[in-house]
User: What shape does this take?
Amino acid sequence: MDKIDEWDNRFLASLSHFLLCVRPVVAGAVGRGVSMSQEMMDKTCREFAQALAAREPVPGGGSASAFVGALGASLCGMVARYGATNPALADRAGDLTHAFAQADELAQELVGLVAEDVRAYGQVSAAYGIPREDPARPAAIQDALHVAAMPPYRIMDACGRALALLEDMADKGSRQLLSDVACGAVFCRAAMQGASLTLFANTTSMKDRARAEELEAACDELLDTWLPRADALARRAADAARKRG
Assistant: This one.
């Protein structure tokens, strides 16, 4: 069982406990959160930007990070598609075809995490909305915080996988599209760092410090691994464009 599978099991346990604690009190609030998350999936780019600017708690930084990561993965898919049909790159067409399929999957995963982050925040809001005198409130808040920490971690993990593909595209794709590869890397870098901030905002309030520190350490590992590599791709493209490399 890998780390994400283990956390998925904890996530499901926390979610189940959360629902048992709060269903009689906040079913309406959770329902509104699910409805709102679906609405996020159906917005145009303009509408999503307007929703971010609204005086509403969601969408926020986590959802925006997921969308930015999806844009980075989509750029990777575009570069791979051009390469797969370029006669000059016929010797690697199979690799490029596989790459754009992977990039498409990552882009869809990240778009889905836009809505998942909205849903997760709705559960935190619902937990804090339980009357203070209700003995179930503290446990419900803690469970909701753990649930809310998982979408940002998944955003970070998906962005790391997208960055690995983008590195491959920098070597196998058309040199004319290296700037697009680098833009994708910059977007995924920003998404990863933004998602980490959302995660840390949840872990700082967790009473279970062992669980919080485990999540934070996993995030630090992703940041330490991928941020320098994203920066290297951006420098490579800038140097190539300015004829320095």
The CA atoms of residues 62 and 197 lie 8 Å apart. The two ends are 43 Å apart (CA to CA). Confidence is low (pLDDT under 50) at residues 14-34. The first helix runs from residue 3 to 41.
